[in-house]
Write a structure and sequence with these properties.
With 245 residues, the chain is of the alpha/beta class. 41% of the residues lie in helices and 17% in strands. The strands form two sheets. The chain has a seven-stranded parallel sheet, covered by helices on one side. The two termini are 19 Å apart.
């Protein structure tokens, strides 16, 4: 399936690598990739995130470095406004436009949040997403399928043509501290998750598969899974795919 205009063909799995969304000191994702990837890795299938929580000169240099190292797709995010370093630009689409001019061959992704006001999210994609090749969404689940449905309706009404990739979170447990931390980022179905883990005794794979099945019922075919255990990610993903078929 051809995605992202003519810049990238989606065939098989891709891996997204996050950036520091709140600007806390951590190893740069691009440096980590260049240092640790083996020679057999398909770099065109690895997609780093770049937030605006860095100096502008750094962000522009990062995009050129990424392309030179074989990473031909970036997801451009704003980053948390309330913590860490300030954004170098007010909105991610502004940085995306600068990178588009600097590295025109690069495929660039945007962002949408189905948990937000669906009309506003669709309007932002319509007004400021035209230069993006695709967009990712904040993670959603079978507990938020009504919000996703409203987002899809508004996107269709707004004539959004670029493909979206919807996120699903892999919940490993219903530990209160974990859920509390995640609740700061997006609405958490804490009560429902507790019931699935504790009352229904479901395995994390099965809970994740429920979310994927719910998205497919809404007609969504492009999905990414966040927070997979690294040690056995391929096997875990294969089982989730089997359960969600």
């Amino acid at each position: 399936t051809t995605l992202f205009r003519s810049r990238l063909t989606l065939a098989g799995s891709h891996v997204f690598i996050t950036d520091s969304a709140v600007g806390q000191p951590e190893e740069e994702n691009l440096r980590h990739l260049v240092t640790n990837l083996g020679p057999d890795a398909h770099r065109t299938r690895i997609i780093p995130f770049l937030t605006c929580k860095h100096p502008l000169e750094y962000c522009l240099r990062y995009s050129k470095r990424a392309y030179a190292h074989g990473f031909h797709t970036l997801v451009i995010l704003g980053g948390d406004r309330h913590e860490g370093a300030p954004r170098c630009v007010e909105h991610a689409y502004q940085l995306r436009g600068m990178i588009r001019e600097l590295v025109p061959e690069m495929a660039l992704g945007g962002w949408a949040n189905p948990h937000g006001n669906p009309a506003e999210q669709a309007r932002d994609l319509s007004q400021h997403g035209s230069d993006a090749d695709f967009f990712l969404t904040q993670v959603v689940s079978h507990h938020s399928d009504s919000a996703v449905a409203r987002f899809l309706e508004e996107s269709e009404r707004g004539g959004i043509k670029i493909p979206g990739i919807f996120g699903v979170f892999y919940y490993r447990s219903a530990k209160p501290r974990t859920l509390e931390t995640l609740h700061r980022i997006y609405p958490m179905p804490e009560r429902e998750l507790r019931a699935e883990f504790e009352s229904e005794k479901l395995h994390p794979d099965e809970i994740c598969a429920r979310s994927i099945r719910a998205l497919r019922l809404l007609g969504i075919r492009r999905i990414y899974v966040s927070n997979l255990p690294i040690a056995d990610a391929p096997a875990r993903l294969a089982r989730i795919a089997q359960l969600s078929a």
